[in-house]
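Hey, does this match?
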Amino acid sequence: MLNIIWIVLLCVGIVAAACTGNIAVVTESALNAGELGVKTGIQLMGVMGLWMGLMRLAQKAGIVKAIARVFGPLLAPLFPDLKRGSDAWGAIVMNLCANILGLGNAATPFGLKAMQEMQKENPHPERASRSMITFLALNTSCITLVPATIIGIRISAGSAQPTEIIGTTLFATCCAMICAIAVDWLFRRRNPV
């Protein structure tokens, strides 16, 4: 449905530009947008490469497991069905750390790994476990301390103060995470398994 809306908007814009004699503006804008997209993509590859590399080094050095041991007790009440020594803990913690740093793309592999590990422990593999649902709620609403990707985009766009969004991002993501945890808790109380 969304694809249809975009095509209609593009067609209406092109027809309106042709009717008003501004078709050259459409062509120029399309070329400029393509150039900006490539430049932004290349700049973001550097930022993402740096953070993903650091995450990989942390994983290889055993820092991921150490972080999981530290934060595991804090997260344990949110995942009561997850076994204490589960391999999912490291992936969950690293996913949340990447999201906290605003690196959604770097968080994705850890999120997939966490879901795979939780599926191995799922007593009903045909449906999502309570831990999987809680993780999905946390993953999509995670607190973001440093929105690195957005800051990178703002830098590439020439923003005078690319970091000025940190406060509002932190407030909005805190509210989102509190709501997600509260709703998850309410649903668990209402529908105990």
